[in-house]
């Protein structure tokens, strides 16, 4: 309850920022997208990680307001990146947002107001989104279908960590699979870990989805993923989340 109060105050006092982490092609290494990741630094304090405040924002419903703010900020920051380099932006969306009757309207307005086409935006949702949206599952599906027909793409985040993953892949309109970072082997010689990454990448590829590996921390991870035919990577090896200015600089230096 205290956390919720602080969140509400923080939103009013404009204490949030958005950081951006590059998503690169595993062949070529170009930053084709950035994931928007919200940050909260109350004045005079250390940053509070999203792991701590996103759950509270979801439980209280404040995520609807915070999520819309992140979406609008990210679209505004990403507009020059898209227009100059074709770099797209991916934004995390929680089930609560998708259960709002006007979610698709809000997304279209954020795009219009920043001068972006739908194709510049990817929404990241989790496998459990239909279950967690409960009675709103139909509305969630309708929003995603409508936005996709406007060119917006949809990614399944943290793939492989939820349950009944396969049924969701069948029922959800999606374009990308983001393989959860827990699948990156911490021991390159462990055959069992290697087999698991291979199985997940093969599954995603056979569904003709673009595959994005998360948590790529080492050159070995990148090499393994290339061998397996994974399309894109995101992780500390390629770049940590940073400010919009840092993202712009990165694009300039790649051009
Ligand atoms: O890097 P990281 O600590 O930023 O993110 C931790 C968790 O918070 C991840 O699960 C990430 O998806 C989530 N997260 C980060 N930014 C947002 C956001 O804007 N909206 C939602 N719903 N989740 C976010
Ligand atoms: O849940 P989601 O996948 O949206 O959030 C991405 C999270 O992963 C963020 O907290 C981000 O800071 C974190 N992250 C990004 N790259 C790496 C990495 O290479 N290793 C680890 N352990 N975490 C990472
Ligand atoms: Mn994400
Ligand atoms: Na992710």
TrEMBL record:
Residues 1-255 form the EAL domain. It comes from Paractinoplanes abujensis. It comes from the Bacteria. The chain holds residues 509 to 763 of 769 of the full protein. This is Diguanylate cyclase (GGDEF)-like protein.
